[in-house]
Amino acid sequence: MLLSVVIPAYNEEKNIGATIHALASELDRNEIPFEIVVANDNSKDRTEAVLQELSADDARVRYINCSPPNGFGRAIRTGLSAARGDYIVVYMADLSDHPDDVVAYYRKLEEGYDCVFGSRFIEGSKVEDYPRVKYVVNRIVNYSLKWLFWCKFNDLTNAFKGYRREVIEACGPYCASHFNITVEMSLSALIRNYTITQIPIKWSGRTWGESNLRLSAMGRRYMSTFIKVFAERILIHDDVIAEKLSSKRKSSKSEEVLNYRLVTLEGEIQEVGSRLAKIEQDENIKKAA
Questions:
Q1: Mean local confidence (pLDDT), 79-100
Q2: What is the pTM for the complete model shown?
Q3: Which of 145, 200, 218, 267 keeps 20 to 30 A from 122, CA to CA?
Q4: Tens digits of per-residue pLDDT, 173-195?
Q5: Where are the domains of the chain?
């Protein structure tokens, strides 16, 4: 299965090269077929020039220049529309996410899960240089989401997640233009009852440049997304239940057909055994005569 890693990038000239080299090396080492799709979000530095060099060196690396205005969510939407893979992972350009976690996501999707949500705040995770104020806000928001959507996932606001292509297609088109797309994507999958697993991941604070997340500007955007998805959950509830029941019926019907075929096969095997025994008996009689 082809993996598409979608990377939104804004003014990441010092990070994007190291990010892509580390990611490609780890995926190659684990023999995972992949493409890297970078959405250049109207960068004002040399990000595009670096991407030109990287894509010239490796055909599996592609980049798209986003149309203005810029926005984290718009960049992700642009990257998703260009992705060709069966599995899709959203990955950060600033070296905060770790390549071996992408491999772990891929393996979980191979196991059959529809989505893989990484968490920086469960046993086994590792976080370095997380800003204190952002940590407090993150915990408040995520605990609120756990309560509001009655789920076990505790890092829904993290962009770094993995999805099957059909999940992206069923939940889209997405509307969020900024960092609120992180919760729009995760919650849209959650309310549709896709199979989701949560695994511990590593996260490191950026070593160069500044974060593009502005907490003061994101409050109303996150709130509008929460309201949108919560209302959507209510509106599609009947459809989700109907699809689940239909899936159970199909599964039950498949089991009935399988059981019937097994019984039929068992009868045919017994019949063949009886015929072979009869042939052997006839041959013994002939030899005795």
A1: 98
A2: 0.81
A3: 218
A4: 999 999 999 999 999 999 999 99
A5: 3-236
The radius of gyration of the chain's CA atoms, rounded to the nearest angstrom, is: 26
Q: What is the mean pLDDT of residues 212-218?
A: 61
Superfamily of domain 3-236: Spore Coat Polysaccharide Biosynthesis Protein SpsA; Chain A (3.90.550.10)
Residue of higher predicted confidence among 257 and 196: 196
Alpha-carbon distance of 52 to 199, in angstroms, equals 34
Task: Look up residue 114 and give its amino acid.
Answer: D
Of 4, 10, 25, 158, residue with least CA distance to 99: 25
Structure-block tokens of residue 139: 């915990």
What is the pLDDT, as a whole number, of residue 219?
A: 78
Answer for the pair 8, 93: CB distance below 8 angstroms, yes or no. yes
